[in-house]
Amino acid sequence: MSETQTNGYHKNGDKRQKIGSEIDEETLNSGAEGFTAEKIFVNNPSCMGMTYDDLIVMPGHIAFPVGDVDISSNLTRNIRLQVPFVSSPMDTVTEHQMAITMALQGGIGIIHSNMTAEEQAQEVLKVKKFKNGFILDPMCLSPDTTLGEVLKRKADLNFSSFPVTDTGKMGGRLIGIISNRDSAFIEDPNVKVTEFMTARDSLVVAKDGVSLEEANQILKESKKGKLPVVNDNDELVALIARTDLQKNKDNPRASKDSHNKQLLCGAAIGTRPDDKKRAQLLADAGVNVIVVDSSQGDSIYQIEMIKHLKAAHPQVDVIGGNVVTPSQAHHLIEAGADGLRVGMGIGSICTTQEVCAVGRAQASAVYHVAKYARKFGIPITADGGIQSTGHITKALCLGAGCVMMGSMLAGTDEAPGEYFYQDGVRLKRYRGMGSIEAMNAGGEKRYVWDTAQSHVKVAQGVSGAVTDKGTLRRYIPYLMQGVRHGLQDAGIPSVEASRDRLYNGTLSIKTTTPLSYILQAAMGQCSTLPSEGRQSSRREFTPIQNHNLPQGRNPDAMSDGPEPMEEDNMREDIPQPPAIATRTRCYKLNLDSNMFPPPSVFLGPYKDAPPPLTYSTSEDSAATYSPVQVAINTAKIFRGITVSKDGTILTQNARATRSNRGAKNKRGEKSRQATKIEKAKDLVEETIATGKAPDSDEPANMMSLVIMGEYDDMKYLVRDGSKKLREASELPDDSLLAINRVRDDMAKEASSPRKRGSPNGSIHRGQGTPSKSRPGTGFASGAPPKLKSHPRDRPSSRKDDKSRRDGMDLESERGDWGHALPVSFSRGIQNIWNCGATGEETGTISPTQVVSPRDGKPHAMGVHTAPHRPVFEGRDNHYGQARETGVTTRAN
Ligand SMILES: NC(=O)C1=CN([C@@H]2O[C@H](COP(=O)(O)OP(=O)(O)OC[C@H]3O[C@@H](n4cnc5c(N)ncnc54)[C@H](O)[C@@H]3O)[C@@H](O)[C@H]2O)C=CC1
Ligand SMILES: O=c1[nH]c(=O)c2[nH+]cn([C@@H]3O[C@H](COP(=O)(O)O)[C@@H](O)[C@H]3O)c2[nH]1
Ligand SMILES: [K+]
């Protein structure tokens, strides 16, 4: 001690240790640093199974930048992906478009098998044939299509141009192109396209074999929007869209075959004898990996199938599954599987654990199977139950090579199906492959095959909807970056390194939920309820009733909600799947990120600021425009901040206006809002006058404005604001969408969740709401309850309340807002900001359109193409799942 004393470590009688080069053993072993996986999963006296939410990874030492985190990992023995993400073989998740984009982003898609073998092989072929920037299956017209039919297709598909070929199909001889300009002045709907198309002799075309750069150059010089590619016989082989070019920069991460440079693609098959033929067609189409798809993979049928596949198609890797135990894994590895899929009954749409009482908590399943399979060099894919980037990180840290996702991806543009609206929320359908709906659509045979009581359908999944996430091209980079941050925080530079640390006991994990607290208590390690990372307590539940879901724009694409089981198909003793099951996702936007691309103008928001909105009045998707983005959210100005174009927060407007506030305050608020509206008006005027985006030389030939209002108090502002803007801009009415929610209705709705399911809820059309709108623009309300004064808004607490200062801390938004804000608020916004989502490589659709009440013409909404960093942070809400009780998921 005398040494410490002399060195000054001993002060006021307080004995202090000198810092050594290592943390002392005693502290290390106390649990203060968390626990090893071994301790949690193996020395597990309470025999408890762990879900992702039960665990949290302890931070490590960061010795590298986040960009250096290497997330590449193996899917199978032979396939390595730069990005360890796999899309589920489900009919609401993966068809060619999803598979193409997944592969371009460095992951892989597994084409579902709820279609004929031929169709599935075609889907694989589309992925294999994919050429960046080339639309290989454009919608074509035949010469005798009428104008009326063209307009209908345009409205349905939101394409602006169609090639005309002699056969009306791809591969036919090119005879012209229809664009918006061609049809603009024709009145008679019975006129044939040949009368008004731009005919072949005046078309600029490219020859088959043209490179993307060359095509780009031709488009630039010709100032055309579309470039048809023809072969020597003048037959159409591809179409190149100018608007797609920018999006189609080569992706260095893309998952490609090393031999032929084609994108990697997977496909699922079942275990029936027929599936051998299916596998043959898939192999012929060039599939790289076949997933043998069963909920319980350890069966003689699957073992036989794997053996067959390995013998018949040695060039194709085989993923067996699903399994959740080492002994199941053993059988499939022995049969020759190159990879395993792990997860049973934990998918968001699963009811397997309820219906069949068999399954396993996913973190436990991943840990145990990965650890066993590793001995044989077999990677595993953690399938199902991924709800956030955090779950991905956890899965990887627990030994998974890749993660497979369904619900996370089902709401993206690339997933099959059309968007539709419910309560103002833009949704896509998502359903379990074992749901009644999916079975009716083709999966039925899987369940009834070879069973004595083949008339009994036992659903093992449910259907519902997921909210719009926009395009994968932005979503995947966001997920990737989230995972990189997670690994960095844990001090792990790569997936491989995480593996080492998992097995050498240097990865620290801690349990987090009350149930796992029992486990810790049993281990004698924990004396108080843990509070770190309590994900479960952060969930909000968003009931969206399953029936009553409005139709998507393409009613044929999917059936109209789950069909009730026929009486004689029902067995009373089998629990029916819950009628309600859906999950929604809220985004917390990160205003700190430099998310606003230069031409955007942001006025107002705020906590959940929408990313730049872009509404184009340009009907020609080929027209060059630089969108100007203006969003005014009068409703939130009262708690708002003003964000400059580069994303810096300029002012914060902290004073609240509520009807219960003094009239003086209210007036002040109104004038502040009026100022913002004035500013917006100036911008509109400036843009219109100069034809340029504010502070930019970019041409800007469009503009529309979105005004959202949530409260009675703001009604006038919304109304007056929209009026002013309209006057200033002479915009047509339909370019102003006003959503005016009335507080009392919101309160009612929020207090009776069921009401949300009613399709016509309470829609309050603001001034300038299109009087006639297509499905998809009818925003309905679904909004926060009446506000009581939140501490944040009380002047006294203003100074020290951090959330008040930065105005955007979701986590601190509990209290009166707790339920309402993240869900309803961001819902409204999400609606709007995702409206502009448009087509993909294949030049497809923007499902949202407004028809002008004046001329009945569709008014397409464009999307800006300026790259910007992902700005959303996913948060899941999970509703209606019995396993939320935490009982059924905890079989270990
Ligand atoms: N991961 C999960 O937890 C779950 C996934 N699902 C998904 O639902 C879909 C259907 O899954 P399953 O019901 O497992 O389909 P499956 O086709 O593997 O099994 C259905 C029934 O048919 C039987 N069967 C299969 N091949 C057979 C053969 N050759 N001879 C005799 N009987 C045979 C099975 O034993 C089972 O009873 C899959 O897409 C699966 O991924 C369904 C439930 C849970
Ligand atoms: O119990 C189930 N009943 C079903 O009908 C069903 N359909 C799919 N799956 C599995 O769930 C996975 C996707 O799960 P997530 O939506 O959580 O990503 C998928 O990858 C599948 O493993 C089902 N499980
Ligand atoms: K979908």
Q: Structural class of the helices, strands and pairings?
A: alpha/beta
Please summarize the sheet with the most strands.
Answer: 8 strands, parallel, barrel
Report mean pLDDT, rounded to a whole number.
Answer: 63
Sheet with the most strands: spatial strand order: 4-5-13-14-15-16-17-18
Instruction: Give the overall shape, derived from the CA principal axes.
Output: globular
Distance between the termini: 51 Å
DSSP E strands, number: 32
Residues in helices, as a percent range: 25-40%
Tell me the β content: 5-15%
Protein name: Inosine-5'-monophosphate dehydrogenase
Family: Belongs to the IMPDH/GMPR family.
Binding site for IMP: 348, 383-385, 406-407, 430-434, 460
Region (Disordered): 1-20, 543-575, 656-676, 746-819, 843-892
What would you note in describing this structure?
With 892 residues, the chain is α/β, with parallel strands linked by helices. 30% of the residues lie in helices and 15% in strands. It contains 27 helices and 32 strands. The chain has an eight-stranded parallel barrel, surrounded by seven helices. A four-stranded mixed β-sheet has the order 6-12-11-10. It has a four-stranded parallel β-sheet with strand order 24-25-28-29, with helices on both faces. Helix 4 (96-104) packs parallel to helix 5 (117-129) and helix 13 crosses helix 15 (362-374). The radius of gyration is 29 Å and the shape is globular. Mean pLDDT is 63; it is low at 1-10, 446-454, 514-664, 698-718 and 728-892. Xanthosine-5'-monophosphate binds at residues 88, 90, 322, 343, 345, 347-352, 383-386, 404-408, 432-435, 460-461. Potassium ion (K) is lined by residues 92, 410, 415-417, 428-430. This is Inosine-5'-monophosphate dehydrogenase. Belongs to the IMPDH/GMPR family. K(+) binds at residues 345, 347, 350. It catalyses: IMP + NAD(+) + H2O = XMP + NADH + H(+). One of its GO terms (biological process) is GMP biosynthetic process.
